[in-house]
Amino acid sequence: MIQKRLKKQFVTILQEHQGIIHQICRVYFVVPQDREDAFQEVVLQLWKAFPKFRQEAKVTTWMYRVALNTILKKVRQEQARQHLTPLEEAEPQAITHRTSETNDYLEYALLQLPPVDKALVILHLEGYNYEEIAQILNLTKTNVASKLSRIKQKMKQIITQEKYAAQ
User: Fold this and answer.
1) Cα(first)–Cα(last) distance of the chain, in Å?
2) Last residue of some domain: 94, 109, 129?
3) Do residues 83 and 102 share a domain?
4) Which residues, 6+ apart, have CB-to-CB distance to 36 below 8 Å?
5) Is there a single domain that holds both residue 52 and residue 116?
6) Mean of per-residue pLDDT scores for the chain
7) What does R_g of the chain's alpha carbons equal in angstroms?
8) Helix axes of 115-125 and 141-166: crossing angle, nearest 10 degrees
9) Count of structural domains, the chain
């Protein structure tokens, strides 16, 4: 009975917030099959962690933490095996849902960042404050602030270079 209730609760949460997982997978993996594999791995890890979820944090914060830790582990493993698809070889559909030129450049810059930097940007764009980001990624609040500042500068540089190259 408890297992059935737990499963129902988990499925409800997953249905409501699966966009979080899709967003993270889209940022880290350009090949659709890799995104789907990553999505499935995150769901599996969320399910394994769900019985231990004490609801001390928001469910979305917990999901981000589990999802990002799972994805970062997967990325590190793939980098160790050197099977990541270089961005130049990525399929044209890697950047989807284009709504404006600014979003295209932002997504392009985001794809160029190292894995942890991507996580910081995603959480920042989702409206998490520095303290919440620090908790999710096991960093200090000061570290989050300084990293985000450097990342913003790096993204500006990437966007400027891309705009210049496009002219």
Assistant:
1) 63
2) 94
3) no
4) 25
5) no
6) 84
7) 17
8) 100
9) 2
The pTM (predicted TM-score) of the whole model is: 0.70
Residue 132: how many CB atoms within 10 A of its CB? Answer: 19
| Structure-token match 């469910």, residue found | 59
* C-beta contacts of 151-159 below 8 A and 24+ residues apart: 151/113, 151/117, 151/120, 151/121, 154/109, 154/113, 154/117, 155/106, 155/109, 155/110, 155/113, 155/121, 158/108, 158/109, 158/112, 159/105, 159/106, 159/108, 159/109
**pLDDT (tens digit, 9 = 90+) per residue, 68-118?**
999 998 888 877 665 444 444 444 333 344 445 667 788 888 888 999 999
pLDDT tens track for 108-152: 888 889 999 999 999 998 899 999 999 999 899 999 999 999 999
Residue 13 burial (CB count, 10 A): 17
